[in-house]
């Protein structure tokens, strides 16, 4: 699939904002200056800026231009449904995925309830750590119903399960229900993550559905407390 012209510019601007090239409360160069800088049209720049505004990186203020917002911590969208691989592009940080556990299991009572399946169903279990700039700070525990995802490999899990499901299997991932809780760190958290003395961990529970409203995946994404803010950037609709 051919990428549009404005997305790479958006990603580059995100990196520059996160590096501090453009600091919070300062304004970005004008549309004309950015068009010259990236050797592209003002329309392409406008679309890239629109994406920055939608994702909470800038606020467009009349008479001032595009003002940079505070993005010191790594931002994880609460309302969006994106894979870690997709987030890597906007992070501008060195990242790595390490698979600790992979295979087929029969769901216990807890998973039967979470995935709305019975004990006869086979479920893929994938346990992965996300390493960001040399620190393992996210533990992802994914459970996928084999009936909907018949084939999976460790190599796919090291890349992007979402990309494989959508591009290779041809299924459309549509929406997720999310629950965010703070729990005490488990032994598993301590053995896999660089916990740095923290007693608690932020857990995002995702119930992920296909286009026909079939629940096919349950994920627990366990985040170290100090590294993340969870963002739902809401804009008021003016009628």
TrEMBL record:
Keywords: DNA-binding, Transcription, Transcription regulation. Coiled coil: none annotated. Transmembrane segments: none annotated. InterPro entries: Bact_HTH_transcr_reg, Chorismate_lyase_/UTRA_dom_sf, TreR, Tscrpt_reg_HTH_GntR, UTRA, WH-like_DNA-bd_sf, WH_DNA-bd_sf. Residues 3-71 form the HTH gntR-type domain. Pfam families: GntR, UTRA. PROSITE patterns: HTH_GNTR. SUPFAM superfamilies: Chorismate lyase-like (SSF64288), Winged helix' DNA-binding domain (SSF46785). NCBIfam families: trehalos_R_Bsub. This is Trehalose operon repressor. It comes from Bacillus carboniphilus. The gene is treR.
């Amino acid at each position: 699939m051919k990428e549009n012209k404005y997305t790479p510019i958006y990603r580059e601007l995100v990196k520059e904002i996160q590096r501090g090239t453009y600091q919070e409360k300062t304004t970005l160069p004008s549309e004309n200056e950015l068009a010259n800088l990236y050797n592209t049209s003002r329309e392409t720049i406008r679309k890239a800026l629109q994406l920055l505004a939608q994702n909470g990186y800038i606020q467009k203020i009349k008479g001032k231009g595009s003002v940079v917002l505070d993005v010191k911590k790594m931002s994880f969208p609460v309302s969006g449904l994106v894979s870690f691989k997709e987030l890597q592009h906007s992070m501008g940080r060195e990242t790595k995925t390490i698979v600790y556990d992979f295979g087929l299991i029969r769901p216990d009572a807890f998973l039967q309830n979470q995935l709305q399946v019975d004990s006869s169903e086979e479920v893929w279990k994938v346990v992965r750590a996300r390493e960001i700039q040399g620190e393992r700070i996210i533990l992802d525990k994914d459970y996928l119903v084999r009936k909907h995802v018949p084939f999976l490999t460790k190599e796919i899990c090291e890349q992007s399960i979402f990309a494989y499901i959508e591009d290779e299997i041809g299924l459309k991932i549509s929406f997720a229900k999310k629950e965010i809780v703070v729990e005490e760190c488990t032994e598993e958290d301590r053995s896999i993550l660089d916990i740095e003395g923290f007693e608690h961990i932020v857990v995002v529970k995702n119930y992920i559905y296909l286009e026909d409203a079939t629940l096919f995946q349950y994920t627990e994404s366990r985040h170290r407390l100090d590294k993340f803010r969870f963002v739902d950037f809401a804009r008021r609709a003016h009628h």
